[in-house]
Design brief:
Shape: elongated
Strand content: under 5%
Oligomer: single chain
Helix content: over 70%
Number of helices: 8
Order of helices and strands: HHHHHHHH
Number of domains: 1
């Protein structure tokens, strides 16, 4: 994003024509923004994934369910996060819809693995609903809403209807 801002400043101050309409214009800026902004959502969420992964086993009084799968899912989310940015660009007509729709649906798989690891850890555990566990349970509900709205946004026909609306804003805030 910093490089995109420097290019914008070069346009404004020195006439560099990076965002000139002949070179992509505002659409290029939008691509650069989402290429940064969408993976950032996952990077912001990673510490919370770690916190929840530490809280749930303590208050369920059992080890984390499927630890290796949880680690693999975290790595997969980090890798796939750079491939889903263009679902914010469906309505521009400038992206390959099948590829980016598939990649956006695909990131739901490791995210679902993490979610079910957390649920599996709580399953038949000796749960103690103290404040940290209540926070973790609230996180799971909120994150579930974020995931479900993300699946809706992955579908180009649905995304065409809700693009640039408060639905996208709600999705972001549910995830983060």
């Amino acid at each position: 994003l910093a490089a995109a801002l420097f290019a914008l400043e070069a346009d404004r101050q020195f006439g560099a024509h990076v965002y000139d309409a002949a070179n992509g214009g505002p659409l290029l800026w939008q691509h650069l923004f989402w290429f940064f902004g969408h993976p950032e959502v996952y990077i912001i969420a990673l510490p919370f994934f770690g916190i929840v992964t530490e809280i749930i086993p303590v208050f369920a009084r059992k080890p984390i369910f499927g630890y290796m799968g949880l680690v693999a899912a975290t790595i997969a989310i980090a890798g796939l996060s750079v491939t889903v940015w263009a679902h914010h660009m469906y309505v521009t007509g400038g992206v390959l819809l099948p590829f980016f729709a598939f990649m956006t649906f695909l990131i739901a798989v490791p995210t679902g693995v993490k979610f079910f690891n957390w649920i599996g850890t709580m399953w038949k555990g000796s749960l103690s609903f103290e404040t940290p566990m209540l926070w973790a349970a609230g996180f799971l509900v909120t994150f579930l809403f974020g995931g479900l709205t993300g699946v809706i946004l992955a579908s180009p026909p649905m995304d065409f209807h809700v693009s640039d609306s408060y639905f996208v804003v709600a999705h972001f805030h549910y995830v983060v």
